[in-house]
Amino acid sequence: MATTKKPSAALQPKRRAADVAYETLETLISTLQLQPGAQVVEAELMQRTQLGRTPLREALLRMVSTGLIVQQPRRGLLISGIDLADHLDVVQTRRVLECLIAACSARRASEQQRKDILLCAKRMVKAAKADRLDDYMQADIELDRVNHAASQNYSAVKAVVPLIVQCRRFWYAYRHAGDIAEGAAAHLQLAKGIASGDEAQAVAGAERLSDYLQGFTERVIAN
Fold this sequence. Notes:
CATH architecture of the largest domain: Up-down Bundle
Oligomer: single chain
Distance between the termini: 42 Å
Mean pLDDT: 90
Number of domains: 2
Number of strands: 2
Low-confidence stretches: 1-11
Number of helices: 10
Strand order of the largest sheet: 1-2
Structural class: mainly alpha
């Protein structure tokens, strides 16, 4: 159990309060606990999350800049909506960034990070077999966190994170059309590619994951 927590955590820099606030809001948005189109009420969020006003405001501003939250005249801040047609562009843009990050991680990851990425993917497979969506998503989040740190490509990570949140939210909204076993298998291929240190294999895994996301989106649009 030690490899799932402390070794990889030790490689991460200490997170600021604003980063914790951002991740908290990100989870609420991606799991639809904050619904698309809902108004953002700062006082309610502070009470709900137990976050301070300053880190919460910083997190909200970051989300406005990435499009997860929109600002409208006379209505204030709103959770952005889900646009089916636009989501295909989200997936296609994410594909390019995921391939770049996978290649960087294959080349730059530490031995412990390679082990942790593979372990997270195996947890996703196990959760998918048991149909435990919350466990699946938690392992997915942890895999992304280690993968992003391992890539050391902070520009690509900054660009891809909002897209990942949009994809998670889309998945929660339309999960009846998805197959988490297929998603887990794609993540496992990605993880194995990174763990092997072979950039071509890592990119192939990222492409498979993107194919899964695109196919899922196309099924939703078709229905």
